[in-house]
Amino acid sequence: KTVLRQSKRPDYSTQEINLYIEKDNLVQGIFGIAVQYLGRPLNPADQKIIFGFYDWLNMSIELIECLFEYCKDNNIIGINNIDKEAFNWHTNNIKTIEKVQVLIEEESRCLKILKELGITTDSRIKDDHKQTINKWCNEYQFSQEMILKAGEKAYKSISNLNVNYLDKILTGWYEKGVTTVNDIKISNENYKKKASSNNKPISKSQYKIEQFNRMLSHNYDYEELDRLEWEYQAQKGLEIYKNVN
């Protein structure tokens, strides 16, 4: 993240803008690019916003052209929406052509993954979806095959697949060290073996052994048990004597 030298866009005057147009060829070029992409002449409000890209956000003319091209490809219409995208780029430190290319590649990958999973989305991916999918690919280092396997697992439980549900599955795998398709297979086999072992009936001898082990696990006071047994037998003997006599 980067910090602006001013938190608020400077209030450029029309005279100041006109002076830059007259003296700075770069500003003329930037306005020419904007006219080309917007398809109309610029009004004074447009000029202030676009000049702010150059002066306030410190964007190069090449980066500004990339911005307009990106907005056109992603159906970001209107100068105010383009302004928001420019500020978003600055906030996320997208300040070179190379970083724009990374952004485009990541968004293309995310859209492809969502399409393969059958999750409907707009032509432009949501920011939270993009962050989550980038986490799977970059932090977790999961292949697209792994992500699709998580989708297969999810569809066994729910009919309306979503990114949050998938994230729970993939995060669970990551925390357990399940990072490949082969790891998934091994994990499933171990789960089946464990479930089979838990459901297997035990023999009478094994049952007796387990009962004996449970008894030994308690801290009994054996002297107290002997005393209670003696009292019980004495009481029983007394009752027999009374019945006889």
Can you tell me about this structure?
This protein is an all-alpha fold and 245 residues long. The chain is built from twelve helices and no strands. Helix 1 (14-23) packs across helix 2, helix 2 crosses helix 3 and helix 8 packs across helix 9. The N and C termini lie far apart (101 Å).
Comma- or semicolon-separated keywords:
245 residues, mainly alpha, 12 helices, 0% strand, elongated
Q: How many strands in all?
A: 0
- Report the mean per-residue pLDDT as an integer: 86
How much of the residues is beta strand, in percent?
A: under 5%
Task: Estimate the helix proportion, in percent.
Answer: over 70%
Radius of gyration: 36 Å
Main sheet properties: none
Q: Regions with pLDDT < 50 over 5+ consecutive residues?
A: none
* Distance between the amino and carboxyl termini: 101 Å
**Count of runs of 4 or more consecutive helical residues:** 12
The sequence of SSEs as H and E is HHHHHHHHHHHH
Q: What global shape is seen?
A: elongated
Oligomeric organization of the protein chains: single chain
